[in-house]
From TrEMBL:
This is UDP-N-acetylglucosamine 1-carboxyvinyltransferase. Belongs to the EPSP synthase family. MurA subfamily. The active site is at C116 (proton donor). The gene is murA. UDP-N-acetyl-alpha-D-glucosamine binds at R92, R121, P122, V123, D124, Q125, D306, I328. It is found in: Cytoplasm. GO terms for cellular component: cytoplasm. The keyword Cell cycle applies.
């Protein structure tokens, strides 16, 4: 199993090119199922999760080709509507094929994803929303069996909580339904906006973009198109956090400052100088130690849960103390015991963590537990004295493209070791 060996103490400097967003690429790939003519997706990050979904979609009979940052697909050849447990269990986002398969073919059989490290993460809202459009759903032996007589019917969907995947699934179903669907309490994450833009390009009719009420007027057919995946706001924030963590100056390019304003404001509160361009963001910590800042994770446009672990790591070496509240997932502090092994002072009580900054972290062997938590350990290692060995980095490979190359480009001493 691969590990990262990181020698801390380097002040990171330079430019890093941000990839397309994993969390946008996955629903966009699932949406390809809806197209009756071939289509092309560009700026696709080269990641394990993308590979998993490409494999799953190929298994449906789609002629799909993934080369460099481009995926081409011809979904006119789909010959089955089955998503097996073996693939779905490795990536929860596989459930996103349910909505488009059901909408286009009137039936689908998709494995339930099961829980994951950061919480139980049920899909009840996805299923409830599809039922509101007339789907008959049964869950049997770990599989969702969904069917509808004829076409799905437009209806009213009211989510009990803001769900990114739920909103995406129902959007991809409603675009081919008969009539108008209103989705209330819809998620407004930039990845939803990206999906809406692509669906519109394919011929869908969607109003209320960027609001929590989406109104979809179903159409009978959707065509393929060419589309480029939006920049990864979480990757952007993660590399800016690396600058804050090491007192350095990092410019992220091919990104969009409008996607992560809540995070940039926190960096400014830490004392960093943040400069925004049209498609770049630079964070200059000017050699200073950041101030610890309190924050609470909430749905977009508030502070994203996917940046919680990284900002927690920066707080760990901050001046003063801060409270971090996690309101999206019930078990997303798994990085805390690992950061503590490196000398961080963090007290957890329920979904709140109080972080009292220490002047220096120290190297220790640690273990990555989930995708974003893993990057927080990388950050801690970059700032720590000595050599840190991070185990189970397959979690990082799921979501950060070319992480060693990108960090090395900023001066970091990081290498991948196999054991
Ligand atoms: C997506 C992102 C993930 C991010 C999360 C929140 C992808 C591939 N993943 O995950 O990186 O951390 O949004 O921004 O885009 N819930 C239910 N029932 C449901 C659906 C959700 O109870 O049917 C709960 C979840 O357990 C969680 C909360 O709602 O507590 C939000 O989850 P959701 O927004 O659906 O997250 P994902 O789409 O899985």
């Amino acid at each position: 199993m691969d590990k990262f060996l990181i020698t801390g103490g380097v002040t990171l400097q330079g430019e890093v090119r941000i990839s397309g967003a994993k969390n946008a690429a996955l629903p966009l790939l699932a949406a390809m199922i809806l197209a009756e003519t071939p289509m092309t997706l560009r700026n696709v990050p080269n990641l394990m999760d993308v590979n998993t979904l490409v494999k799953l979609i190929a298994g449906l009979g789609v002629k799909i080709n993934y080369q460099g940052d481009t995926v081409t697909a011809d979904a006119s050849s789909i010959d089955n509507q089955f998503a097996p447990y073996e693939l779905v269990k490795t990536m929860r986002a596989s459930i996103l094929v349910l909505g488009p398969l059901l909408a286009r073919y009137g039936h689908a059989q998709v494995s339930l994803p099961g829980g994951c490290a950061i919480g139980s993460r049920p899909v009840d809202q996805h299923l409830k929303a599809l039922e509101a459009l007339g789907a008959q759903i049964e869950v049997e032996a770990g599989y969702v069996h969904a069917k509808v007589d004829g076409r799905l019917k437009g209806g009213e969907v009211i989510f009990d909580m803001v769900t990114v995947g739920g909103t995406e699934n129902i959007l991809m179903a409603a675009v081919l339904a008969d009539g108008v669907t209103t989705i209330r309490n819809a998620a407004r994450e930039p990845e939803i906006t990206d999906l809406v833009h692509m669906l519109i390009k394919m011929g869908a009719k969607i109003d209320g973009i960027d609001t929590d009420t989406l109104v979809v007027t179903g159409v009978e057919h959707l065509n393929g198109c060419e589309y480029a995946v939006v920049a990864d706001r979480i990757e952007t924030g993660s590399y800016l956090a690396a600058a804050a963590m090491t007192g350095g100056c990092v410019k992220t390019t091919h990104t969009d400052p409008n996607l992560l304003e809540a995070v940039l404001e926190k960096f400014e509160e830490m004392g960093a100088e943040v400069t925004r361009g049209d498609d770049w963001i630079e964070l200059d910590m000017q050699g200073k130690r950041p101030k610890a800042v309190s924050f609470r994770t909430l749905p977009h446009p508030d502070f994203p849960t996917d940046m919680q672990a990284q900002l927690m790591a920066v707080n760990a070496i901050g001046r003063g103390f801060a409270t971090v509240s996690e309101t999206i997932f019930e078990n997303r502090f798994m990085h805390v015991p690992e950061l503590s092994r490196m000398g961080a002072n963090i007290q957890v009580e329920g979904n709140d963590a109080v972080v009292t900054g220490v002047e220096k972290l120290s190297a220790a062997p640690v273990m990555a537990t989930d995708l974003r938590a893993s990057f927080s350990l990388v950050l801690a290692a970059l700032a720590a004295e000595g050599e840190t060995l991070i185990d189970r980095i397959y979690h990082i490979d799921r979501g950060y493209e070319q992480i060693e190359e990108k960090l090395q480009g900023l001066g970091a001493k990081i290498k991948r070791v196999s054991s």
